[in-house]
Amino acid sequence: MMYRLQPIRLEDEAMILAARNAEHVRMFMMTQSIITPEVHAAWIRAKLAREREPYYLFLHGDRPIGVVGITHYAEALRSGEWGFYIFATDAPKGAGTTMLAAFLDEVFRQGFGRVTSLVFTDNVKSHRLHEKLGFTRDSVIVGFVQNKDVTVWALNGLQWQRQRENFLEMINAVQVESL
After folding, report:
1. In this predicted model, what pLDDT tens digit does every residue of 12-30 receive, in sequence order?
2. What is the pTM of this model?
3. Cα–Cα distance list, 141 to 18, 44, 144, 149 (Å)
4. How far apart are CA 158 and CA 130, in angstroms?
5. Which domains does the chain have, with CATH numbers?
6. Contact by Cβ (8 Å): 166, 91
């Protein structure tokens, strides 16, 4: 079954809110409190208005299973911080890596120079995933969020080009729809 990255739409609002508020997703987010519909509506409208901060719904066939996107885009650096989650608890094995490899390929194709990520230091699974994708540890911010340490990961376009070949099969399994 084919995967697809589809730009988020206003009609995805309720589904994405439910995913963001799911305990198994929220526990890894920098803001772990329940997101109200009003706050979420403002967030999704802001995402839809920011051309340089692409946000995609990740689908397996026609079934949404994850979200990935860019925040905090810095034009001078052509850099943004990514956020992502697979919210379907029964997603196929490897779906997260597939989503992220296809997304990285797309944003670097769009001209991004660098993608960064903030990960709680105790989130071992996410650290392994970043290493696998070719990110390097940039720094650790002590007590950054909720008195928890956060690791900053970074990947630039050259690093991605060196890693890309390892993920071609996954990248080619994803249809990316235009923003």
Report:
1. 888 787 777 776 665 566 5
2. 0.87
3. 29, 28, 6, 6
4. 16
5. 3-176 (3.40.630.30)
6. no
